[in-house]
Design goal:
Blueprint: H1 2-24, E1 30-36, E2 42-48, E3 57-61, E4 69-81, H2 83-86, E5 92-94, E6 120-121, E7 126-138, H3 144-151, H4 160-191, H5 194-208, H6 213-230, E8 233-235, H7 239-246, E9 249-252, E10 264-269, H8 277-289, H9 296-302, H10 306-311, H11 313-316, E11 318-323, E12 331-337, E13 343-350, H12 351-356, E14 358-363, E15 366-369, H13 372-387, E16 390-400, H14 410-413, E17 417-426, H15 433-442, E18 446-450, H16 455-464, E19 472-474, H17 475-480, H18 483-489, E20 495-497, H19 501-513, E21 518-521, H20 528-533, E22 536-540, H21 545-550, E23 553-555, H22 560-601, H23 609-622, H24 644-672, H25 681-709
């Protein structure tokens, strides 16, 4: 039994792995490297991460994963998130110079932590903003990440599938611990042959075990993964198919999922709400000169290519420095030098964060103090545009009449700015999104929006796509809540706005703690933590590297309608797996009841241990067709969960019914065929073996289908 089970499982796992490798090759993560050709010429090309070797020159930019341990020799406003290694939530800045970064973590025995060294980046971290060139110094088992993994393997939190498997396993373990001693003692005392009683009890224990469960699961999941490929969905972690079937909450971002993922610059206004071309000019300079994380908003601004010639950007301006965007400041600044050698700091970012560092405003060409009344007017203007579904960024500047060339101290440099106005963008909703959201609700999946955007903009988009939003939670409110309070509040909230990456992850943890199976769809750098925290992380092939690596499932098109089909496939897999568990558990339980009943009056064992094992093996082999079994519509209508109570109830109800058939067979063998003496025990045992082998599977399947239909 063990050999056959292992061979079957190996075959399924091998085919599954081979299929997954072919599929993952379509969306493999790559890195840009430079290598010296035989001719001495340096060639730059994209290669898979696994092909990086020591000595390669790697080119890093925002969104890239660091493919190995590297030493930096050229950086430009490089910020790296290394929370996987150091536990620090905020990104740290890296330089080509050898210097230690200040750390909030205590030093061990006065020694410096490797992650604090400014000119080293390590495998497992990812680039948040900026660019860099580095030489690879260690790969694979030689990396810091590998050494940390060997010392303390950081496992992903248990998913719904893991919890279900564990609960089912403990049901069988407890059942065996209760039944097997009874079988041993009853047969030992009644038959007097303790050796045979021990072997028979051992056989019953093996018979109670659903040996083919790993094979059935592997076969179901492999078939599901291949089926999903037809729907342009690639499964990276097979178990995630099961989690997808039990998913009852789907958390998604707004931009690119609800919307068309194409931003249009709709307005450029001064602080009074009037159209102002100078606001657009400042915004253009900011987006043109920044080297960090360029997003869709920057792309929309840079589409106004006519400004490059009108401003004579290359001749008139020179970039001095940059204060890159990060998710705590929510703004970024560039410092440019004009013809008269005067520096100007141009800042663009979220309205609240930019207003926080502004002391003045430009009103009708004059610089005036930013009074409380003017601040209130600015906020009302922002709210008015947000209510129309526009995303608003504030633009500010400050002239610096010095020859300062190093702008590292953000608290000092980004102060006393002059607010010049706003740029407003429109990200229209997708035409098919309302229908997809309706389909998800119909399938019993609640959709929640987790976005870093403002509440008013998100509410407007939700209204456009018929997603009902009653209450909303802001990131600041989430931050102030205790875990218990958030766990109680999160299931009732549909919209979470202005969230940081860590707050997204915390919301998902709260939803899981409340008893939900949670999926998360994300594609950005700030979604990586949430993707790993969710029961099933979903991303797209156009996502940044770190998001693709963190996800369990990749969609080849960012369309929720595709995800609906994947959810149905997950439920189909879950249903067929539960079928096997229910049939195996009820059948085995019925056999145990039969054995206990027969042991009370039979002068011999009802079946030899070898016969019992062979019959169980043949029955299990017949169940390998279950992955191809059809599934009733009602089984696909709601999320499927592994409930031990339902399986135990089915087992305790159907098991005794099965025993009725067995006892009827015993009566036939005893009184009709005369197998009622020790001399005829072989006839009795063979009769039960043949009858059970022929009808066991069909008998269970018919009763099972009858109960399911009723």
């Amino acid at each position: 039994m063990v050999i056959i089970s292992v061979l079957l499982r190996f075959n399924q796992e091998f085919r599954s792995t081979r299929t997954m490798n072919r599929l993952r090759a379509q969306v493999s993560t790559t890195v840009a490297v430079s290598r010296i050709k035989d001719t001495g010429e340096q060639q730059r090309r994209e290669i898979p991460l696994r092909e990086v070797v020591p000595g390669d020159i790697v080119h890093l930019s925002a969104g890239d994963m660091v493919p190995a341990d590297v030493r930096l020799f050229s950086t430009r406003d490089l910020f790296v998130s290394q929370s996987v290694l150091s536990g620090e939530a905020l990104p740290v800045e890296k330089f080509e110079a050898l210097q230690a970064q200040p750390s909030r973590r205590p030093r061990v025995w006065g020694r410096e932590e490797p992650t604090d060294i400014a000119n080293l980046c390590f495998m497992g971290s990812n680039v948040v903003s900026g660019t860099a060139m580095a030489v690879v110094v260690a790969t694979g088992e030689e990396t810091l990440f590998a050494s940390l993994t060997h010392r303390a393997l950081a496992q992903r939190s248990f998913t719904s599938f893991d919890r279900g498997i564990n609960s089912i396993s403990w049901v069988f373990i407890r059942f065996m611990l209760a039944i097997i001693p009874v079988v041993l003692l009853l047969n030992g005392f009644t038959k007097g042959d303790w050796a045979s009683a021990f072997l028979f009890a051992l056989s019953v224990a093996v018979g109670l075990t659903p040996e083919m469960l790993p094979v059935i699961i592997a076969a179901n999941l492999t078939r599901g993964a291949i089926s999903m490929v037809r729907n342009r969905v690639i499964v990276k972690r097979l178990n995630s198919i099961e989690d997808l079937g039990s998913m009852d909450v789907l958390c998604i971002d707004k931009t690119g999922t609800l919307t068309i993922d194409r931003i249009i610059l709709e307005r450029h206004l001064d602080v009074l709400g009037n159209a102002d071309d100078q606001v657009l000019q400042y915004a253009y300079l900011n987006s043109y000169f920044q080297s960090g994380l360029k997003n869709l908003l920057d792309a929309a601004i840079l589409e106004h290519a006519e400004l490059r010639e009108a401003l004579r950007v290359r001749d008139t301006y020179r970039k001095v420095d940059e204060l890159p965007f990060d998710f705590s400041r929510r703004r970024m600044s560039v410092i440019v030098e004009r013809e008269r050698r005067q520096h100007a700091l141009i800042c663009k970012g979220a309205v609240e964060e930019v207003l926080h560092v502004c002391s003045f405003a430009r009103v009708e060409g004059k610089i005036v103090p930013l009074s409380a009344e003017l601040r209130r007017s600015v906020s009302e203007l922002r709210d008015e545009m947000n209510e129309k579904g526009l995303r608003v960024l504030a633009v500010a500047y400050k002239d610096i009449a010095t020859d300062q060339t190093n702008y590292e101290y953000r608290a000092k440099d980004e102060t006393d700015l002059v607010l010049v106005g706003f740029v407003a963008f429109l990200d229209a909703p997708k035409e098919s999104i309302a229908e997809a959201l309706f389909s998800l609700r119909k399938e019993g999946v609640r959709v929640k929006i987790l976005t870093g955007d403002s509440e008013l903009v998100a509410r407007r988009i939700c209204k456009w796509v018929d997603l009902k939003v009653e209450d909303a939670l802001l990131g600041s409110e989430v931050e102030s809540m205790s875990d218990a309070h958030l766990q109680n509040a999160a299931p009732q909230i549909t919209l979470f706005a202005k969230l940081t990456p860590l707050q997204k992850s915390r919301v998902i943890s709260a939803l899981k703690a409340a008893g939900n199976t949670v999926g998360f769809l994300g594609d950005g750098i700030n979604d990586a933590a949430a993707l790993r925290e969710a029961d099933v992380g979903i991303s797209v092939d156009t996502a940044v590297d770190v998001a693709k690596e963190s996800a369990d499932i990749l969609m080849l098109e960012k369309n929720l309608s595709v995800l609906v089909d994947a959810v149905i496939e997950g439920r189909r897999n879950s249903t067929n797996i539960v079928k096997y568990i229910k049939m195996a558990a009820s059948s085995n339980f019925g056999n145990v009841l039969t054995v206990l009943a027969s042991s009370a009056f039979l002068p011999f064992l009802p079946m030899l241990p070898l016969q019992l094992l062979v019959q169980n093996l043949l029955y299990d082999l017949s169940q390998t067709t279950l992955p191809f079994d059809s599934v009733d519509a009602e089984d696909l209508a709601a999320p499927r969960r592994w409930e031990t109570y339902g399986i135990a109830r089915f087992m305790f109800f159907l098991g005794p019914i099965s025993s009725v058939f067995d006892l009827a067979t015993f009566a036939l063998l005893w009184w009709v065929f005369g197998a009622n003496t020790i001399e005829n025990e072989a006839l009795f045992q063979s009769g039960w073996f043949v009858e059970g082998k022929k009808s066991r599977a069909e008998k269970k399947r018919r009763v099972y289908c009858g109960l399911e239909c009723s």
